[in-house]
Every structure is written in structure tokens, then in C-alpha cells.
Amino acid sequence: MAGHDYGCAVDANQARRLNADAWPGQPLDEFDTPAEVDAIFRTQRRIAVGYFCVFLVVTLGVPALTLVLDWWSSGRIVGGMSPNFAMAAIGLYVFFLCLAVAAGSLATAVEDRMLGGPVPYREEGPQS
Amino acid sequence: MNSGDLTVLAVVVGVSVVLAVGLRPRGTSTLDFYLAGQRIGILTNACAICGDYFSAASFLGVAAAVYASGLDGVWYATGFAAGFVPVLLFVAAPLRRFGEFSIPDFLGRRLQSEPVRLCAVVVVELVILSYLVPQAVGSGITWQLLVGGGLGGLSPYATGVIVSTAAITAIVALGGMRGTTWTQAVQFLFLLATLLWLTAIALGSGFSYPGAVARLGEEPLRNPVQTDEGWVLRAEPNALHPDEPARFSQPGSRYGRFGQFALVVTLMLGTTGLPHVMNRFFTSPSGRAARMTTVWVLGFAGLFYALAVLLGTAARALIPGAVAGRPWLAAITVDGVLRVPEHALLVLGRLYGGSGGLGVIASGALVAVMSTIAGLLLAAAASWGHDVYERHVNPGATQRQAVLAGRVAVVVAAAASAAMALGLSPETVSSRFPSIVAQMVTWAFALAGSALTPVLLLTVWWRRTTAPAAVAGMVVGAVSSVALLAVGLAGGAQDEVARGLLVTPTLLAAPLGLLTTVVVSRLTAPPTDVDAAWIKLHGTAADRHAERLARLTIRGVAPDAAEVSR
Questions:
Q1: Is B551 within a domain?
Q2: What is the DSSP letter of B430?
Q3: In terms of residue numbers, what domain contains B340?
Q4: Residue A99: its chain B contacts at CB < 8 A?
Q5: What is the CATH number of the domain that holds B183?
Q6: Could you list the pLDDT tens digit for every one of the 128 residues in chain A?
């Protein structure tokens, strides 16, 4: 995992202080280092922007096709509906759900892999 | 209204009141009153968010927009559902992990600035008020059709506005977030069941969805307009192909080459800035739970809006053939087309289920209004009570005083929205828009998407965002969206592209707000000490801590359970 070579005892101490600042009065038995958080932030941003681009292209693509493809609005599929109507009335909702399941699962899996794992320096660093 | 209708309505309102009273906060802490102790489960919260979000605009308005405009009306539903994708991708988990009481509280703490907090309160209250008014209008319309009579010399419309606003104000003031959450969840399930019931009856009686779309597309789309000679049907002009008539199944009845893009972007970005919806994510136990809640919301939203579109189509196809022999229907139609499109679902309910069916749908409409009003009032209470009263009016307030301030805010916001709704007459304005309720909600989305969403996204994803920049971004977003909208409503543009940009101004106002925030951030001193905020927003230590505690609790309970089973 990228970022596991940045660790040192000083980083762990700084992390504990920052985590204490983040949740004052609520001592947690877990902590994240700034470098780990920076790495997950960049990864999550890449995932979110990537999925958002797909979402935008498909969602706005449905009305956009009307302007360039006559068949999209006047063709007949599914017993008389045009592809445009079928996508707007049903297809897009299925797409949103599939995209949400995929993006949500990936974001959670990435967090599991990149944060909270067994990192040697966490145990080696002096306790503050 | 007969006794059957009244019974349905009384049962629904009674269940809501019992839930609100039975699940009201036991203590007097603001965490309990505003956030239900941050212990709302994924499925419950998803249902509550849907109850919060699926307002009169979704229940009555989407079907009405499809009824009046065909395919071009479907874009309302698409935009409403699409709004939760950016919420899932960019906001839900980090917002919950930071974990404050409201959007102003989040922005104020993240940027460590009271001016940011107060500016956000003003914007949030504007959004809430502009969202509350169409809900009150929807309740007035529903009462008008369902009851047909007023109380104490008031018109039916005014009675509906006042009765529904008063009822939900009492529920929210009593139940707080905990009672409201369960009320909203149950109300959403009732709404969904209502749509499923109506769809099942329609399909069971031989209605063919694709066949109806194809058949409706063969004739020009005509809608009633009020003239000096009375109501007449007028063919809708085709904005896409001016030399052809507009048709139900084809684009062009409402939007030209541009309008639907502006609408979808407005609704999509607006959802992320809606205070009553975003506040619900603070009630999740963890960021991960907030994320999964959004996935469920998208599933429910897809089902809900697909059914609403189907039923709008069914109403358009079936009502003309049902007018003969039904004087009550003839009185509200012009040559088989409803004068007020919002009546579409209510009429379908009466056609299929008699007066009992009308009672069920009308109760659903009132429930949609009530659950959304509940969420909006709670959001108003959180921003006034927590962000203004506790921080600026009475910083030494006890928890009891703070909760009381929230309850007073609930009553004031409710009274203001009811007063504004009473000043409107939906029949006179509905000829200008296909669905006045959906249209008015769109204006609230425009304000939220232009003033709050850009700043919210930048504070979550850009470390360099500064407090002065956030204030500037919110002010520019809010002022530009309201100004563009005012010019658009005053008929300030004849060109289709310009009109689309003015009436649904997010496409212009949101980039303006975003650009302002970025430029001012670059021009002001970079914020210091962002690391702790970043750990809170994007780290998962608190989530892991909460999950470990939950696992320990379950392990602790399990041996006892094993003993009992033996």
C-alpha cells in the first residue's frame, strides 16, 4: 500500500496529538496518521471524481442524444416506448443504483485497506 | 369527504402523533433533540431521509409534471433522484465523520469562523423557507380536493395550509429528531405502499404503460389555460421543433435544446445543499453508515420516482375516458384534461378506489407534505437554536433553554411559511408552470445548489478553502441565483437558453459561487491547522472505534443470550 514507508515514531506521536485535537474529550483507541489520511483522501477523491464523470456523462447523455440522434426519441422499443423515454423513466434509476453500489463498496473497501491496518511503527512509537 | 376518507387520514395522522410522542427525547439534551443521539440505523435513516425528501413536489409534483409535459416532465424525477449520487460520492461520509449539528455548524467549525456560521444560517433559513412554502401550497391543494370545505369561514385551501402546518409543528416540537425520524420512516413506507397499490390496481385493470406512452405520442399535447372566455385547451408549442406540435412521448413540450440540462443540474447540485436532508446524515452512527444509507436512499428513490412517472402517464391516458358519467371529474377537467395537474394522482385514487381510494392518496399527499415540513422545521430549529441562540444570544444557555429555543424556532418558521402560502393562489399560477409545486421546490434547489453546495464541496475536499472565501462564495451564489431567478420570472428573456439559465440558475450561479470561493481563498492567507480537521473528515478512526465498541457490546451480550437459550 502506498504510504506505508512514511511511518516513524514521530509521525505516530503527531498522529495521536492530531487525533486528540480532532475529537477533544473523546479518547479513541484508534488513530490515523496525517500521511495515511492524505493518501486515503487522494484515493477517495480519485474514485469520487471518476464515478461522478461516468454519472454525468450517462445522465446528461440521455437528453443530449435527443439532439443528435432522431431514433433516440422516435424509435420504438419495449412495446412502444422510445429509448429516450425508457431510459428517462426507468433505465437511469437502475443505473444510479448500480453506480451507487459500486462506488460505495469500492470506497469502503479502500478505507479498509488503507486505514487502521497493522502498521509496525504504531506499536514502536513512544506513547504520548 | 366521507367517513372512510376521514378514517384513513385520522389513522395516518394518529400513528404519526403516537410515534412522535412515544419516541420523543427522554432527556433535554440538544444532541438528543436535534440528532436523535446519533444512533439511527442505516435502513431506518434511509427511510427517514426518503420521508424527508419526498415532498409534495415528489408525490404530487412529479406525476403532475409528467401529466402536463410528458417526457419533459420526467426530468424532474430524474433530477430529484440523481441528486443523491453526488451526495454519496462527495459528502455523506465526510460530513458525518466531522459530525456537527447542522450545515452552518459544520462550516463554522471546519473553517473556525463565526461569520461563516452566521452567513450559512441566513442562507439555510432562506432555503428552508423557500422549500416550506410549496409544501404548504401542496397541503392546501390536497385539502381543497379531498375535503372541499373550509373551517371557521376560511377557504378549503387556507384551511389545508393551516391545519397541516399546525399538526406537523406540534409533532416536531414534541418529538424532536428521534420522534420525527420514526414518523418520517413510517410516512415514507406509507407513501411507497400508496404508489405500489395504485400501480398494481392500474396494471391489474389492463393499463399498458408502453402502450399508453405510444398512444399518447400520436396526438398533440394539449393543456387547459384560463382565458377571458373561460377554460380552453391549448396545444403546447414545441420548443425543439417549432413547426411541429409537442407530443407527450417526445421532447420539446417544455424544453428546447438546453432547458432539461439546466433543470437536472439544478436538482442534482441542489440536493447536496438541502439542510434538512444533510442534517439527517449527522444522525448516522458512523461515516460508513451514512454512505450505505445513501445507497439505500438511491434504491428507494429510483423505485419511488419510476412509479410516480408511470402514474402520471396513467392519469394522462385514463382520465379522458373516465369523465363521462362522473360530474365531479367533469368539474375539474377541460375536455378530459385536469385544470390543476397536481390532481392527477388524487383523481386516479378516486377512479380506482372510490372515495376510500381518494382518501388514501390524499392522506399520502398530506403525509408527504408533513414529513418534509417536519424535516425542514427541525433544520430551521437546529440552525436558529444551536447556531444562533446557543452561540450568540445566550452562550451560557442550559440544555433545557437551548431545546426550548429550538422549539420556538420551529413555531416561528412554520408560521412564516404558512403565511406566505396563504398569499398564493395555486390555480392562477399553475397555468404558467406545469406543476407549480415542483417548480417552487426547484427554486429552493437552485438557491441551495448555488449558495451552499460549492462551499460545502470545497470545505470537504480542498484544504486551502478559507473562511472569508466561504462567506464570499455563499453570498455570491445566493445573490446571483435569486437575481437570475427574479429576472427570469419577470420574463426577462425570450431566448430558450437564456430563459433556462434564468429560471433554473444553478448552471450559472453555482460556478460563480465556486469560482468566487476559489479566487478569494487564493487571495487570502492560507488556513493553518487543517490537519486535525482533515483527520476528522477523511480518517476512519472514529468509525473503527464505534464499530469496535459495537462488536464488544454484541460479544458481551452473546454469552448471556446463549445462557438463556440453554
A1: no
A2: T
A3: 3-544
A4: 85
A5: 1.20.1730.10
A6: 333 344 444 466 676 766 777 666 666 667 788 888 899 999 999 999 999 999 999 999 999 998 888 889 888 887 788 999 999 999 999 999 999 999 999 999 999 888 876 554 454 444 43
